[in-house]
Design brief:
- With 194 residues, the chain is of the alpha+beta class.
- It has helices at 2-11, 57-62, 97-116, 165-171, 179-182; strands at 27-28, 38-39, 45-46, 82-93, 121-125, 132-136, 141-147, 150-156, 183-193.
- The protein is built from 5 helices and 9 strands.
- Strands 2-9-4-8-7 form a 5-stranded mixed β-sheet. Strands 1-3 form a two-stranded antiparallel ribbon.
- A hairpin with a 6-residue loop joins β5 (121-125) and β6 (132-136).
- The two termini are 25 Å apart.
- The model has no long low-confidence stretch (mean pLDDT 88).
């Protein structure tokens, strides 16, 4: 978030700032990711002053981004819009041959459960008191696909929520503590609502 904020400020684009003692650029991240999860696809929304309509934002911002960041597109809206996430694709990575073999049987079983509409239950921690509840995550899953470096997991995001990366690892019989080393958010599909 800070990298994007600094790149936009350095680009010279006329940002709109919040009011108050410590003004900040009006920048938001519509789909925050879980702590430790890497991401190859992020959406940032920023409010700018109207006189900057004709400037090539992509070049201005991209020139200020550090190595490893790529700005793929910029869209300008003349009235407020809302981005609603509808699908997310995760890559669960592994180098271990034993895990890869386990993935094949696990993904076949999970895909069959999703296709047939069977429940897929996980234990979810719900608050700071560590209360646990059982959640049926089947409605959040589309399918699993074996790829060269692990498993792609295609998920739905519904108004009531979605599956969490640590829950995906549990379904694949992996340690949920490996989220930061094993899970990458590869792509996010958005619906724009005006």
């Amino acid at each position: 978030m800070r990298v994007i904020q600094r790149a936009i400020i350095r680009s010279g684009i006329g940002l709109v700032y919040s009011q108050g003692y410590n003004p900040r650029p009006r920048l938001s991240l519509p789909l925050p990711k879980s702590v430790g999860v890497a991401s190859d696809d992020e959406l940032f929304c920023v409010k700018i002053r109207p006189q900057f309509d004709d400037i090539c934002f992509t070049d201005l911002i991209a020139a200020r981004l550090p190595d490893g960041f790529e700005l793929t597109s910029v869209q300008i809206h003349d009235k407020p819009v809302r981005y609603r996430c509808v699908e997310v694709e995760y890559l669960v990575k592994t180098d271990a041959e034993e895990e890869k073999q386990n993935f094949v049987s696990k993904t076949e079983m999970l895909n069959e459960q999703v296709k047939s509409g069977k429940e897929i239950l996980v234990e979810r921690t719900t608050d700071k008191k560590n209360d646990v509840k059982t959640v049926n995550v089947a409605e959040f899953l589309k399918f699993f696909e074996i790829v060269e470096d692990g498993v792609m997991v295609f998920c739905r995001v519904l108004p009531m929520g979605t599956i969490r990366p640590d829950e995906i690892l549990k379904l694949l019989d992996m340690d949920p503590g490996r989220v930061s080393t094993s899970v990458v958010r590869k792509r996010v599909h958005w619906q724009v609502e005006q």
